[in-house]
Amino acid sequence: MAEENVKERGDGSAELVKSNGDKHASVIRPAARYYSAIKDAMVCGKGRYTLVKDVDDVENGAYDKPLPCFGCGIGWFSFLLGFVFPFLWYYATFLYFGNYYRKDPRERAGLAASAITAMGFSLLLLVIVLFRWF
User: Fold this and answer.
1) Which residue ranges traverse the bilayer (predicted)?
2) Half-sphere exposure of residue 123, counting CA atoms within 13 Å on the CB side?
3) Which of 15, 53, 96, 125 could cross-link to 111 by cystine, CB 3.0-4.6 Å?
């Protein structure tokens, strides 16, 4: 996995050595690993190129996958569909106050919009009910 270098001694014998970065390459971030490989190639000065990243070795980020509910997220889906089924606003409010957005921060805005709309809808229902009774 780590490339071994040959260090020649003054008496003509050779010794296999590993750089310190190669020993701990599995615990450092991928970007630092690539930087370390480039730095080692430049220090050696042998004129060889080092493969920085393989095309097949693509590391996807945590948020590269699409959001659920047709890609718009549960929060915005609940917000839009809540105008037809207002119960969905309360469901999204429950998710918002349950910190569902910690799984994927992209959900936070839609869940907050649904929570605010649920509060407004509740106030509207309260005003309608109070004025009917009086």
Assistant:
1) 74-97, 109-131
2) 6
3) 96
